[in-house]
Amino acid sequence: MGCNFSTSRGDRGANALLELAPVMTAGNGNPAPELDRNTLLSALSNVASYISSQRANITIVAVGGAVNTIFFQSRQSTHDVDFYNSHLRQADYELILKGVEYARKRDPILQGEWFNNRTILFIPKAQRGYLTDEAISQNEVVFERPGLKVVAAPWNYAICAKLDRCAGAGINGPRTYDYSDAATYLHRYLELYRIRSVPRSAILAWAASYTTTVTDAVLQELNTVFHSKYGWSAIQMGA
């Protein structure tokens, strides 16, 4: 139980995804509360505590606002913790569900959707295993306690997911912080690989591999935002 690399996929049914993905109901249309860094860390600690009490350890991959709020501290708060891990078993999901409920009972601000895996529904099935393995290999730790480890999604994937929305190709429209988030992810990518910039062609190749959309106009805007944040242009537009 808690194995991150189960070879058996048959015991992971669709219900595991559906149970953790938020369901809109008549009373669930109100904006979700903002969760700051301390609230998120406390909530994740409670999830970890429950899973550890069951003598299990689970690793998940976080995307979006939780990464910005906890890892980068570039946002004051976010609505939820969005995660994936295509290697989780049904037993792992059941532990997570119970851990999430355990955390909710200890903090009334947490709503039912504060911890969910709806992001997996937007990742093509053929890419889920690869993106899980890449995130675990990258090992950018957002949170870690006995029972639960949270790592960030691959930075190049996170960049492309933001740029896809900026290009208007995503299901949800672009948000005011998308370019800033993409610049933050790109800066960390450059730090991690100890390089100063990436060629335009590399980002286009990432986008193609993740089935996302990136345009030159979007890359130019990202370069502008990056330059304003960090003082140089990180994308080689002619390469």
TrEMBL record:
Q: One Pfam family, short name please?
A: DUF7582
Q: Which domain of life is it from?
A: Eukaryota
Domain (DUF7582) ranges? 38-231
InterPro entries according to UniProt: DUF7582
The protein, known as? DUF7582 domain-containing protein
Organism encoding this protein: Lentithecium fluviatile CBS 122367
* Phylogenetic classification of the source organism: Eukaryota, Fungi, Dikarya, Ascomycota, Pezizomycotina
